[in-house]
Design brief:
The complex is a heterodimer of chains A (663) and B (339). Chain A is α/β, with parallel strands linked by helices and 663 residues long. Chain A contains 23 helices and twelve strands. Chain B has 339 residues and is of the alpha/beta class. Chain B folds into two domains: 226 residues, Rossmann fold (3-Layer(aba) Sandwich); 83 residues, no CATH class. The chains are: A alpha/beta (663), B alpha/beta (339). At the A-B interface, helix 1, helix 9, helix 10, helix 18 and helix 19 of A face helix 2, strand 6, helix 3, helix 4 and helix 5 of B.
Chain lengths: 663, 339
């Protein structure tokens, strides 16, 4: 695996899918795709290329004098003019660049060679060395750099190299501190723990996992410090403390002396320094962005698993944005229902192409009922729920369908209408209770604010109402909880606060998106009890879950979603005892509650296809044990099952009585 | 110790150092004894804060043990050096929970799988490649997967890759730290089947850490239930999961909803009768840690830490274990905090 050749051999046997994988493209190639970074790198390279071989390139010797032509502007003989004693500015600029750039190289060498290893080891190992590095950095911060440099220069008179090296060493502990904190973050990564468990040596882990991750930070720091070194060299030259040879710094000094007689003299060296520093800064931005791309957290939602468009064969080309006809069961909205969703289709851009992510979703919720939406990751449960309240991601839109709630269609409603409905008529309970709360406000203040928003009452009344809500969601000691900050609450308590906030507007409907997924099972049971109490008090609930147990515990009816479609809709008891759709049956069978130790679990092979890969016809066709030609031919419509209060999107539904669905 | 024991943990205590400003040191594991026999799967069950993952980390040498000892195949590995760990990594591997965080996103899958082979075992390139391809095949992934980055795979596929990474080292013992918890049902079933198949084919032993009693019941031979860093019940998995003795195990079982509305309604009623309340917030410094939540708690439970006592095949750390086993236990007094 070590050589590229070996890798190629292995790929010979593989069916690799061509895909645009930004992490795989070369680092330099990706950097150079950024115009600013590429331009800056090109400019810096050019400067280096002309200063390093300055001897043959420069038209004159840097110290060659021509007293007859002193302090002149640009001319054919002297392109950038001449300075004191008639020395050619262009030649001095080229030669001077050597001195200045050497200073930068010396500074950075000392800075990086000391700072990076020290920071990585301090962060990775901790302990005494860590404390030593931190205290040294503190100490160095307190040292006046310029005084140290003056001392160095008084010892090594006129030797800029020593001053620049000292400058690099003085900066190194500060770099070490930055690298250390970046290392601390990497150290906690699971893959570093996995490497430790794999018995990999620390130095290998530091080289393979830590160093690439801190490189971005280091490059940014180094380019800033490199720019600082250029300015320092200039400063020393300007003060007459630096070298007596030609350097950008001594040229500035020369120009400033003659600013009255020949202002032009400041332009070439000034431009050189400014542009060089600027280019370093721009390049560091580009480097940092390019490095960040490699470690960008992969999106945890299926859209990230999509492949590039245009490479699929015609047969698998999904009908992107094209809605198959809705049929039979769900034609007209049910005006009796509290919430009636019909033909809801939501479109989100995936790799630039607007793509349906849920399609033709229809269901009804009667007042006082708990409706479950069940399915796996990537089936469109959360998109369905967020679209009901118009809370889709910014570039998502409802392509078609209606959401009839209390007689009004929310699908076409304007922002003001939706704001009135949110919280006041429909409450929202999120999955992650702690991050749903603002860490800088107390729980009581946050809920009171929601109360005030909905009722417009006084602050005092709102606080009182918040306490009542806390008691209603069975928080022990509401007064104490009200003055607690979110981080002081356990997950279960935070979720109760979240529910209290959702109830603040006394909504008729609460939508709960996986409200117990992040909680321990005993806490989950208590939260489910609480939601059951809400239902008894007349609030309707739409509960999104992936857990059959939670569904069975709380819900009256359920819709099963698969790959953006409702595939089955029934009373929960009927659904779990006699599922009609093969997906429902398969998902139920793979629940470990039914598992017999020692026997294989009946798993549904394969995975949920992401929206761009939805097949024509039934979305479940490639995983279905009962698939036939007809399933692949054309989209399957949802239809009622013979005289029953349930429906399914399957042309070969399972037998409902005595079926093989359940053990 | 018996000849069949592969891993023996005795009196393990793990304390995390923390500054006084952040609440002082936290003892996550308090005197845990544990044995994993060759070819056996031991399930560690408990809720957050029970110390189950800390035990796994201590076995792997990722956190130091403050007290007690860990023996692997007869050798003391409690305070092993990095060199010891390097040798041990050939026999002991890990699969973590998060299929997204457990692989370096900048490395290809092949590179990730080859890492330990190259840098620990220092195998020649052709052997590394052979092992990587075989491991991918074992977990049901095509050889081409080696050239792609983790971002190209779904959660279930990544968990297969994480298992493959453990397998390339050809270990005898694998710590599965919530290895299927982040997966969807149908994928979870696939991965559980894979783990079961690998165990049979290679005679692996697992320390299977999970919060889900149903998953542990399916995969494990023995289950160990933890509460607040202590073992409260230990026994054959099916026995413990179907007829739990300790009030905490009972609470855990009663709280996990089953996918059957009729049974679930019955269980709701039972759970209300059992009267277990509250979360782990309130804890006593002496006595049984579960007493503040326990319906069966008596005076003694608040003052004396119960020992793990064997009842037939099952061991329970409960003062009233015998009565509960005999079915004669009645709730002691209403637990503190019960409304």
């Amino acid at each position: 695996m070590k050589t590229p050749t070996a890798r190629r051999t292995a790929s010979g046997t593989a069916r690799t899918h061509p895909r645009r994988d930004s992490a795989r493209r070369g680092f330099v190639a990706r950097l150079l795709r950024k115009p600013t970074a590429a331009g800056s790198a090109g400019y810096l390279l050019l400067v280096v290329l002309v200063t390093v071989p300055a001897g043959p390139l420069a038209p004159y010797s840097p110290d060659g004098q021509d007293l007859t032509a002193a302090l002149q502007g640009p001319s054919g003989a002297h392109w950038l003019g001449t300075g004191e004693l008639g020395r050619d500015v262009l030649s001095r600029l080229l030669h001077g660049g050597q001195v200045t750039l050497l200073g930068v190289v010396i500074t950075l060498a000392a800075y990086l060679l000391l700072g990076v290893p020290a920071g990585m080891v301090a962060g990775y190992r901790g302990g005494f060395f860590d404390r030593l590095v931190l205290r040294t950095a503190d100490l160095v911060s307190a040292v006046p750099v310029i005084i140290v440099l003056l001392v160095v220069l008084s010892v090594f008179t006129g030797d800029e190299s020593a001053a620049m090296a000292a400058n690099g060493l003085l900066g190194a502990p500060l770099l070490a501190r930055v690298v250390r904190s970046a290392t601390l973050g990497v150290k906690e990564e699971l893959y570093v723990r996995a490497a430790v468990a794999g018995g990999i040596r620390d130095r290998v882990i530091i080289r393979r996992h830590v160093l690439p991750r801190v490189t971005g930070v280091v490059l940014v720091q180094a380019s800033v410090y490199g720019a600082y070194a250029v300015l320092l060299e200039t400063g020393l030259g300007f003060l007459g403390l630096g070298t007596t040879e030609a350097s950008w710094g001594s040229m500035i000094a020369e120009a400033s002396k003659n600013i009255g007689t020949d202002p032009w003299l400041l332009v070439p060296s000034g431009f050189m320094i400014t542009s060089f520093v600027l280019a370093l800064g721009l390049l560091s931005d580009g480097l940092r962005d390019t490095l960040a791309e490699r470690y960008a957290a992969p999106a945890r939602k299926p859209p990230s698993r999509r492949r590039g468009g245009g490479l699929r064969g015609a047969a698998s080309q999904p009908v992107r944005g094209q809605v198959p006809g809705t049929a039979g069961v769900f034609e007209e909205p049910d005006t009796e229902a509290l919430l009636s969703v019909r033909g809801l289709t939501v479109s989100l851009p995936i790799e630039g192409t607007p793509t349906d992510v849920i399609r033709d979703v229809s269901f009804d919720l009667r007042a006082g009922e708990v409706l479950g939406i069940v399915g796996e990751t990537g089936c469109g449960k959360t998109i369905t729920a967020t679209s009901l309240l118009g809370m889709l991601p910014a570039d998502g839109r409802i392509a078609s369908g209606s959401v009839l709630f209390e007689g009004a269609d929310l699908a076409g409603a304007d922002a003001a209408t939706l704001r009135r409905v949110r919280g006041r008529r429909i409450g929202w309970i999120s999955q992650d209770p702690v991050s749903g709360l603002d860490p800088s406000f107390t729980a009581g203040a946050q809920v009171a604010e929601v109360v005030r928003l909905h009722t417009g009452c006084t602050r005092k009344e709102a606080r009182q109402r918040a306490l009542e809500l806390f008691a209603k969601v069975r928080l022990p000691d509401p007064a104490r909880i009200a003055v607690s900050y979110p981080h002081q609450l356990s997950g279960g308590m935070a979720q109760r606060v979240g529910i209290a906030a959702a109830l603040a507007g006394e909504p008729a409907l609460v939508i709960a998106d996986e409200p117990t997924t992040a909680l321990d099972v005993t806490v989950q049971a208590e939260i489910l009890d609480l939601l059951r109490e809400l239902r008894s008090a007349g609030t309707s609930v739409v509960l999104i879950t992936h857990d059959w147990g939670v569904l069975a515990d709380l819900c009256d009816r359920a819709v099963v979603m698969y790959a953006g479609e409702v595939v089955e809709e029934a009373e929960v008891t009927d659904l779990v005892t006699a599922p009609a759709h093969p997906y429902t049956a398969g998902l139920l069978r793979s629940d470990p509650h039914h598992a017999v130790p020692g026997e294989p679990l009946p798993a549904v092979e394969g995975a949920v296809p992401p929206p761009p890969q939805w097949p024509v016809g039934c979305h479940f066709q490639n995983r279905c044990p009962r698939v036939s030609e007809a399933c692949r031919a054309k989209p399957v419509v949802i239809s009622q099952l013979a005289e029953l209060e349930r429906s399914t999107r399957c042309i070969r539904p399972l037998e409902l009585i005595g079926g093989p669905a359940h053990d | 110790m018996t000849d069949s024991a592969l891993l023996q943990v005795h009196g393990l205590e793990v304390t995390y150092r923390r500054s006084r400003l952040r609440g002082g040191d936290v003892t996550a594991v308090r005197g845990v004894d544990l044995t994993v026999d060759r070819g056996e799967t031991v399930g560690l069950v408990g809720e957050s804060g029970s110390g189950k993952s800390t035990i796994g980390s201590a076995v792997l040498g990722l956190v130091p043990a403050s007290r007690g000892g860990i023996e692997f195949d007869g050798a003391d590995i409690t305070h092993g050096t990095r060199a010891d760990r390097r040798l041990l990594a050939r026999r002991m591997q890990v699969v973590f929970q998060d299929p997204y965080g457990s692989m370096n996103p900048a490395h290809t899958v092949g590179d990730t799988l080859a890492e330990a082979l190259r840098h620990n075992l220092r195998l020649p390139a052709d052997e590394i490649q052979e092992r990587v391809l075989r491991a991918l095949d074992d977990v049901g992934l095509p050889p081409g997967a080696a050239h792609r980055h983790p971002a190209a795979f779904s959660g279930g596929q990544r968990q297969r890759i994480a298992i493959a990474r453990a397998l390339v080292m050809e270990p005898e013992f694998v710590v599965c730290d919530e290895a299927v918890s982040a997966l969807d049902l149908s994928v979870q079933a696939q991965v559980l089947n894979l783990l079961a198949r690998l165990k049979r084919a290679r005679g692996l032993s697992y320390l299977f850490i999970s919060h889900d009693l149903a998953v542990v019941r399916y995969l494990s031979d023995t289950v160990v239930v933890l509460y607040a860093g202590r073992v409260v019940e230990r026994g054959p998995a099916v026995q413990v999961a179907d007829h739990p003795l300790h009030p905490y195990t009972r609470a855990l079982l009663a709280a996990a909803p089953v996918p059957d509305p009729v049974a679930q309604r019955r269980r709701q009623a039972e759970r209300r009768l059992a009267g277990t309340v509250g979360t782990a917030a309130a804890r006593t410094s002496v006595g049984c840690a579960f007493a503040p939540r326990c319906a069966f708690a008596q005076e003694v439970c608040w003052s004396v830490q119960p020992d793990l006592v064997a009842h037939d095949t099952v061991a329970v750390a409960c003062h009233r274990g015998e009565e509960i086993a005999a079915g004669t236990a009645r709730p002691g007094r209403p637990p503190a905090g019960a409304a």
